[in-house]
Design goal:
Distance between the termini: 69 Å
Radius of gyration: 36 Å
Order of helices and strands: HEEEHEEHEEEHH
Largest sheet: 8 strands, mixed
Structural class: alpha+beta
Shape: rod-shaped
Helix content: 25-40%
Length: 220
């Protein structure tokens, strides 16, 4: 008996292949985003950004900071300094790129450590620029001690593809303008045969048929 695969089995196998392919592409394009901040003389680790998928536009940041960092940020706030952040994107081949941003340390501290990290990435997911924002309220003289607990939003801005120009219409329009500037009409550019071939060809065929019919027969 000839074996014929059932439709549901074939569809399941096809879906499985698509799933494996998508996972392989996602794994190949996996990029890690490491976040560092500067509270003193040098940058120190702050955490790592986690995306749900390789194409996600939002993420979370896994960060574990102690109260020493809060005290350092409080001192930076008192001095009206800037809180510096940098993000490094690294792919599986070891290629990395770094972008840096800053925000007022005073605004960040008095907002209760609420900030937004906006990463501008290229088509491969590597970071090109970094925007850091926090509360827009002006700083006050309030200087109470706070416990370090960042409430961070992560947004990824990816390049978007613009509309494709209609080059064919542009070429036709430019050709029409050139013809008008030369005092010519588009139909004048066609030859006689190109304009009237639908009449010439049937007439030639009919002529050949009539010639063959009326040709004298050779004597026997």
């Amino acid at each position: 008996a000839k074996f014929e695969p059932r439709g549901d089995i074939t569809m399941a196998a096809f879906s499985f292949i698509l799933l494996i392919t998508a996972l392989a592409i996602s794994h190949a394009n996996a990029i890690t985003y490491t976040v560092e901040h500067k509270l003193g003389a040098k940058f120190e680790p702050r955490g790592e950004i986690i995306l749900k998928t390789a194409s996600s536009s939002h993420g979370t940041i896994d960060q574990n900071l102690d109260d020493n960092a809060a005290d350092a940020l409080r001192a930076l706030s008192r001095s009206k300094g800037q809180y510096l952040v940098r993000v490094t994107s690294t792919d599986e081949q070891g290629h990395s790129q770094t972008a840096q941003g800053f925000v007022s340390a005073c605004q960040l501290y008095q907002s209760g450590f609420k900030d937004t990290l906006r990463l501008y990435v290229d088509t491969n997911g590597h970071v090109q620029a970094l925007g850091v924002s926090s509360s827009t309220k002006p700083c006050t003289n309030e200087d109470k001690k706070r416990k370090m607990s960042f409430k961070t939003s992560v947004v990824l801005t990816r390049p978007s593809t613009g509309p494709v120009p209609d080059t064919d219409a542009f070429v036709r329009e430019q050709t029409r303008k050139m013809q008008q500037s030369n005092g010519e009409q588009p139909e004048q550019q066609q030859g006689f045969f190109a304009k009237y071939w639908m009449y010439i060809v049937p007439a030639m065929l009919l002529f050949n048929v009539l010639t063959a019919v009326n040709a004298p027969q050779p004597a026997k």
